[in-house]
Amino acid sequence: MVRGQLPWPSEFLNRMDAEVRSTLPHVPVMAPVGVTSARGWNATPLGPPHTWPVALRTLCDVIDGSAQPMFIVWGAQRILLYNQPYAAILADKHPAALGRDFLDVWSEVAQDRTPLVKRAYAGEAVQMADITLLMHRNGASEEAHFSFSYTPVRGEDGQIAGFFCACLETTPQVLAERQRQVVADRVRAALAIQTVGIIHWGPNFGLTEVNEAFLSMTGFSRDEAIGKTWQELTPAEFWPASEQAVEQVLTVGEAVPYEKQYYRQDGSRWWGLFAPRKVEDGVIEFVLDVTERKEAEERLREREQRLQLILDSATDYAILTLDPERRVTSWSPGAARTFGYEAEEILGKSGDLLFTPEDRQAGVPEEEAATARQNGHAPDVRWHQRKDGGRVFVSGSNNVLRDPSGTEIGFLKVARDETERRRAEEEVRETEERYRLASQATNDAIWDWKLATDHIRWNEAVETLFGYRGEEVEPSGAWWKAKIHHDDRARVVAGITAAIEGESDTWTTEYRFERRDGTYADILDRGTVLRDRCGRAVRMVGAMHDLTPHKKAEAMLRQLNETLEHRVVQEVASRLKTEDALRQSQKLEAIGQLTGGVAHDFNNLLTVIRGAAQMLCRPTLSEERRQRYAEAISETADRAAKLTSQLLAFSRRQALKPEVFNVGQRVEVIADMLRTVVGSRVELTTNTECEICYVEADPSQFETALVNMAVNARDAMDGVGQLAVTIEPTKAVPGIRGHKAAEGEFVAVYVTDTGTGIPSEKLAQIFEPFFTTKEVGKGTGLGLSQVYGFAKQSGGEVGVESTVGEGTTFKVYLPRVPAAVAEAALESAASDEARGHGHVLVVEDNEQVGRFSTQLLSELGFETTWAANAEAALRLLEEHPERYAAVFSDVVMPGMNGVELGKEIRKRQPDMPVVLTSGYSHVLAQEGSHGFELLHKPYAIEDLTRVLRGAIRQKAS
Fold it and tell me: Where on the phi/psi map is residue 765: left (φ > 0), alpha (ψ -120 to 50), or beta?
């Protein structure tokens, strides 16, 4: 026969399985119901569940969460409480058994159980294995077998209040033992049980058969479990218990059910209740998973430990219990700290020892106990006696303790040591007495404000200072507030309210306070906020000091000071007027010098132009010489235009011609020219590597500004030194000349020299037109003004840092253009070579310039129409809206200027290109070109052609 197989036919096995099932009690399966909600408890001796002792409620939670039959017997009435699995054992006694006397429920076996119950109530743990009882269930008497243990449970007073039982009915096993002939069938039936693990050990205690319940408990597969020994499944610390069970099975045929841990397949552990029994071909063992019960017991132990820890850690409170005769039955560490007795010194002795001799003589302990019996509790707020004879003031209560039946079982006293508070209150009373005496000795009006009642107490000085008699002073905050001058009242009330509601403990302010005669006294009021332990303001004490005499003295002194100040102001104003006149004289001198220099330069330029023009008029002039004279006129005109452009930039009336360019590359282009400007004895270095340093500005004006800064540096170094030009991107412009810092994307140009530096008192003037530190005749003071004008018109800023004797750094900040946008703009400009024709409407108020412009455009391939003013141009556009491809207009004209004309055309014909031209315009300098293309006078033919053709091509696209 193969191990693990049983020799009986399947039909016989099935029949016996049915017989075995018929012997078990049958109860309909119901959803789990908690003990506390299974019935109404108010009418029972236990009362409502929320009033039950903590230990009882905890045990109810334990049995509710367990699948093992469990019950609780509680109180002198032996009230029965049980979980749903135990209802199966009760059979038809359920649910009437819930809440009844345990011995009454099992009256048929009361004679057998009464001694066990008494032993449990006596504090003895009772364990019974396979006890036989004749029980009445399902309408008939039947023999039943159980293994169970009664665990005594103590109440909050430390006395045995009941017991807890986890039971296992062994009736099926006993029946199986009596019917050895069908043991194999019963084994197979047992193996099919889903809630109890069944395992079969072979002769060498190796597993030969297991049921699904055991596999579910352990996590092993059947193949993994078969062949394992109990040593492999059992942790080493439980081997002694297992060896004892093996010995019992081998000697007497079975072992007393015992608990131990087993390993799961994943290595974790679980608790089982094991009941092994010898059979013909080995040992069969029933296993009940009691992990939940064990964990519940552990949680119960932890709760009891936490409760004890709470009691032990509550050292600020004296917690003790007394029996009905007022003898001490428990003593917390807080009680030892408060009264000085250790637990072993006071337990069993009368609690009256804690009262003072005078209270004991007056019968206070008896009176306190009687009050507690009558009302359930009695206050205990008095001085008590310590072991060392000292006194301790406690605040607490004495509460009567009763069992579930209402019988008095003693008293619970909880009190807190408030000796320090009591002494502090006495000190406060002494302080208040001292305050009362001090307030009588001062001239200030002393006030004491109880915030909760809004009651203010004043000293006698309120009559001395303000004239109010005692009966006229209302003791409230409202009276005080009403006497404050109406112009000061809101401020004063707001300030004192903030002090009371805030964290500050002091308050000081000045205000006017009404006297009895209607006049006002100037008052300095100072107060201190007194707070309770929680930080709440409860009182405020202060003093009002009369400042009226001091204020009068201050007024007289102020009048004298004001007279003196007026004289000083007049003298300073006179000096400033003289200095301003001197400064204007110096500026006029500089302007005169500048005028002479500019006139001299223009005369030189006009001489070249006039001579070249006269030579061109000679008919015998060769073509080569004619071309040379024409180029001379053009070059001279360019120099004249640059000179006027620089002058206009100095006045910030130059309309800039912005283009996108890389600042570093532009600096490198003019680096050689800068070296020529500063001279060979000045070492020029540049740091211009910056791929993202693109700006949109007038490149010509940028170069001019750079040259002006370089010339200024050369002069500061007297032609010898080091000059550095550095380019870098920056995220912000610092605050300069009182302006706020500005965040954004900028390119910074630093020009640093090693010159003499600029005195700090002159830094604020260096960008003013005509201001110069050079000798007369060596500078006009317009160079740095041009730098300032260019930076401001370009949307940037210019600053300077200088140290006398070390050098100066000028910092120009220009708005940075994103690299992608800059590259797109450069590509667009580079590709602007397309040819196009169209009809251009020329708007120019100067007849000579208008005739020249139309002739020039005609020679360049454009059709032209000339309008003498903006109004005429609008009429032509209205009469022939489709004729014109672009409008080319001067800016400065009588009536409507070019910018206003462009805006009007944009409203009427949004797609019409408008190109503006001007040599000088305060409109453009102040407001910009408003998005219109701009050509500066004098302009080159190439620039005119490029701009007009680009505008016409853009309209066509």
Answer: alpha
d(CA 383, CA 389): 12
Query: Rounded distance, CA 225 to CA 207, Å?
Result: 7
| C-alpha–C-alpha distance, residues 432 and 121, integer Å | 62
Distances in Å between the alpha carbon of 264 and those of 40, 205, 944? 42, 19, 95
pLDDT tens profile 193-234 = 667 888 999 888 889 999 988 999 999 999 999 999 999 999
Confirm if 226 and 256 have CB atoms less than 8 A apart.
no
The full DSSP string for 326-384 is -BEEEE-HHHHHHH---HHHHTTSBGGGGB-HHHHHTTHHHHHHHHHHHHSEEEEEEEE
**What integer is the mean pLDDT of 828-845?**
67
**Contact between 102 and 86 (Cβ < 8 Å):** no
**Alpha-carbon dihedral sign for residues 646, 648, 653, 658:** negative
Going by the DSSP 8-state scheme, the letter that residue 799 receives in this structure is E
Helices (H), 617-662: 623-650
Cα–Cα dist 325/626, whole Å:
141
Nearest-angstrom CA–CA distance, 899 and 881: 20
Of 152, 163, 165, 189, which Cα lies nearest the Cα of 20? Answer: 189
Non-local (6+) Cβ contacts of 481 within 8 A are 489, 492, 493
- Record the tokens describing residue 549, joined without a space: 């005499």
DSSP letter for each residue of 288-320: EE-HHHHHHHHHHHHHHHHHHHHHHH-TTEEEE
Q: Give me the torsion for CA of 21, 22, 27, 30, rounded to 10°.
A: 40
Cβ–Cβ under 8 Å, residues 902 and 916:
yes
Asked if 635 and 818 touch (Cβ cutoff 8 Å), the reply is no
For residue 413, the one-letter residue type is K
pLDDT at res. 440: 63
Where is average pLDDT lowest: 418-432, 683-697, 774-788, 860-874? 774-788
Query: Would you state the pLDDT for residue 742?
Result: 84
pLDDT in tens, 556-591: 877 776 666 566 667 667 766 765 565 555 455 545
Residue 945 and residue 957: Cα distance in Å, rounded? 18
Q: How confident is the model at residue 824 (pLDDT cuts 50, 70, 90)?
A: low
How many residues in the chain? 957
- For residue 439, name the pLDDT band (cuts at 50, 70, 90): low
Angle between helices 783-793 and 699-716 (to 10 degrees): 140
- 317 vs 937 pLDDT, higher one: 317
Which distant-in-sequence residues (6+ apart) come within 8 Å of 13 by Cβ?
A: 6, 184, 185, 188
* pLDDT per residue as tens digits for the range 687-726: 988 888 999 888 888 888 898 899 888 988 988 999 999 9
**Helix intervals (H) in 680-725:** 699-716
pLDDT band of residue 807 (cuts 50, 70, 90) is: very high
Angle ∠(240,245,250) on CA atoms, nearest 5:
125
Instruction: Give the chain's mean pLDDT.
Output: 82
Q: What is the token pair recorded at 527?
A: 């107060």
Q: Distance between CA atoms of 129 and 127, rounded to whole angstroms?
A: 7
Residue-wise burial string across 312-350, b where 16 or more C-beta atoms lie within 10 A, e elsewhere: eebeebbbbbbbeebbbbbbbbbbbebbbbeeeebeeee
Q: What is the DSSP letter of 127?
A: E
> 329 near 158, Cβ under 8 Å?
yes
Indicate the residue type of 331: W
